[in-house]
Amino acid sequence: MTLLELGAGDDSGSKTDIPEMKALVKRGAELTKQMLGFARRGKFDIQPLDLARVVAKTSALFGRTRTDITIQLDFAPGLLAVLMDHSQLEQVLLNLFVNAGQAMPEGGQLLLRAENAELANTEGARLGIPPGLFARLVVTDTGAGMDAGTMGRIFEPFFTTKGPGQGTGLGLASVYGIIKNHAGFIGVESEVRKGTTFTLLLPATERQVAEDKTPPAVILHGTGTILVVDDEEQIVKVCARLLQKFGYQVLTASGGKQAIELVRQYGAKLSLVLLDMTMPEMSGRQTYEAMQKLVPGIKVLLSSGCSVEGQAQELLDSGCNGFIQKPFDAVDLAAKVRKLL
């Protein structure tokens, strides 16, 4: 839940657009987390996924950005679940869809087909993957296509046929890496002016997809005074407005030095400090340690765009009260604050 939702009335026409906006933001956040995880050689959250549902949802989001492209879905009955990390699968699909869209600047057709496949030992050995159950996903566009030289290099990191500033050359390289890391296969066929077809073999399972048992979003209100500390002005403003809507009194600081002065001034009157870990001049850790000296036992909720590792985990181990990862929504923030208070 967001400030837009909290401020929009039930009959507001804009309220129907908010879920789509949230979905796009959430997807961007998840992809950012996966990039951070890749840099740390992070772990994947492998689970049975409904391939048809993920493909349909992701292609629908892409389709809203390219209404000149007709998207056709063709899923075989009894399609097996795939064993993948949900965010990584979405990243694969989005990169393939964006690549297809760039090959069709004036519009065209995008055909997405999926069926079950069982690989024998010999075929698996030929493709470099273990034999067994797979879901075959075929992504075909009617775009410009590629010559043999280009097709042979598309999975290379930083290789791109686009001009300066138009592409990084990491999209398809990322797709290749994700598929390989999930013990799958990706191949490509293309011909100039006749389009391109990517064929993916994703490890499948007969296990059932787990039901989504996420409880409905509920905003938890409370009372007290909270100090928000962050060097990003917009983050401070949004957090302050959210916390005020939850019922709290809010003080704000744009850095560690200002935060320490407010702690010195208000002392035990502060119920909680929401503290950013990465700030110039004084880091979150330095600020936390200085606040503890002024008011021993002051409650602090750490906040960071990175996962709870390194200094954040060290502070939690030493007695810091909690951690919330950016970007967070209103429900997450309200629940974390209420739990600590």
Characterization of the model:
It contains twelve helices and twelve strands. With 341 residues, it is of the alpha/beta class. Strands 1, 2, 3, 4, 5, 6 and 7 form a seven-stranded mixed β-sheet that branches. A five-stranded parallel β-sheet has the order 9-8-10-11-12, with helices on both faces. α2 packs across α4, α3 packs across α4 and α9 runs parallel beside α10 (284-294). The longest helix has 22 residues, at 18-39. It is elongated, with a radius of gyration of 24 Å. It starts with a helix and ends with a helix.
Q: Topology of this protein?
A:
Blueprint: H1 3-7, H2 18-39, E1 46-49, H3 51-65, E2 69-75, E3 81-85, H4 86-103, E4 108-119, H5 121-127, E5 132-141, H6 148-151, H7 171-181, E6 185-190, E7 196-205, E8 225-229, H8 233-245, E9 249-253, H9 256-266, E10 272-276, H10 284-294, E11 300-304, H11 311-317, E12 322-325, H12 330-340
Parallel strand pairs: 2-4, 8-9, 8-10, 10-11, 11-12
Antiparallel strand pairs: 1-3, 3-7, 4-5, 5-7, 6-7
